[in-house]
Design brief:
With 309 residues, the chain is mostly helical. The protein has 13 helices and seven strands. Among the domains are: 3-123, no CATH class; 246-308, no CATH class. It has a three-stranded antiparallel β-sheet with strand order 6-5-7. Strands 1-2 form a two-stranded antiparallel ribbon. A hairpin with a 2-residue loop joins β3 (90-92) and β4 (95-96). The termini are far apart.
């Protein structure tokens, strides 16, 4: 029997007579080229087609026979397709079901889960039953292939504003344990953003400004966090070393201020003359390098000394 011709005929028929929600109560998505053999085509729209449950079952039976004839019954390709057909054709272990029975079961399951109230109630029961129990996959690391598939599936997805708010509310007031913090620290040690990621973050933050309310909250939170705390001398020294000399982002630069536009920026020393022509003056406030507040304080101290003398 020419299984390949029959399989191609089934696919061509469904390409001509496309199944949609308007003309079919229930259908399943089938990979024309098996995903177990062609993992690169898992998300390729050209490789996906809608079939009825009966056709889907029949298609996997044909694929099994095609690969058996082409590669032999001791090949990896054949056993991958055999396994896929086995999972479809057995409701319980060693209990074979026909294509008609498979179709009826799939429709029954679809009708059952389409009842939203029933679904919500069952999911709540399932949640309570599993609460407090470890996941069956706990401790089993994901393969790099699996991670890549998950990344591609979630690429470009964005949470709705309502979902973001729910997540925010659920995490309000939560505090991580010291053990959890250490795990997070160790997992991120040595990791660095790629240049592409850095540029994406920069573009996202361009033009962003905190509101006055937000600034106040950040200030209060920082003050509360640092109250009564002192960084160890070792940490202070490491911070100083990490920002001294050429490591400082403002190394070899000077602050300049434009009184007309009220704009402040840090420029390279060789560019100072160029910016002076544009109306900029040295110093963060255009006071020649000494901030206005510091100058006022200095003058007040000098006047006090003169009076005492």
């Amino acid at each position: 029997m020419d299984y390949l011709r029959i399989y191609n005929g089934l696919i061509e028929k469904r390409k001509r007579e496309v199944l949609t929600e308007e003309n079919c109560d229930y259908f399943e998505i089938h990979h024309i080229k098996p995903r177990s053999i062609y993992p690169d085509l898992v998300n390729d729209k050209e490789n996906l087609i809608a079939l009825t449950p009966k056709e889907h079952y029949f298609a996997h039976h044909l694929l099994k026979e095609i690969y058996k004839k082409q590669y032999g019954d001791d090949s990896d390709e054949y056993w991958k397709l055999f396994n896929a057909f086995w999972l479809m054709s057995h409701a319980k272990r060693y209990t074979f079901i026909s294509a008609q029975r498979y179709e009826a079961l799939r429709k029954e399951i679809n009708d059952f889960w389409s009842d939203k109230n029933k679904t919500k109630e069952i999911r709540l029961k399932m949640s309570k039953a599993k609460k407090g129990k470890p996941s069956p996959k706990k401790g089993i690391p994901l393969s790099e292939e699996h991670k890549e598939k998950l990344r591609l599936i979630n690429l470009g997805k964005k949470h709705l504003p309502e979902t973001i708010e729910k997540i925010r509310q659920a995490n309000l007031g939560k505090q991580l344990s010291e053990e959890h913090k250490q795990i997070l620290i160790q997992s991120r040690l040595g990791s660095k953003h790629t240049e592409e990621t850095k540029e994406r973050i920069r573009q996202k933050k361009l033009g962003f400004r905190h509101t006055e309310e937000s600034k106040k909250k950040i200030g209060e939170a920082s003050a509360k966090f640092m109250t009564g705390r002192k960084l160890p001398k070792e940490v202070c020294e490491n911070i100083r070393k990490s920002k001294s000399g050429e490591k400082n982002p403002n190394f070899g630069k000077k602050w300049m201020f434009n009184e007309q536009t009220n704009h402040r920026l840090c420029v390279k020393i060789e560019e100072i003359e160029e910016y002076k022509k544009m109306g900029y003056k040295l110093g963060k406030n255009g006071k020649g390098g000494i901030s206005h507040t510091k100058k006022q304080n200095f003058n007040a101290i000098r006047e006090t000394i003169d009076e005492n003398l």
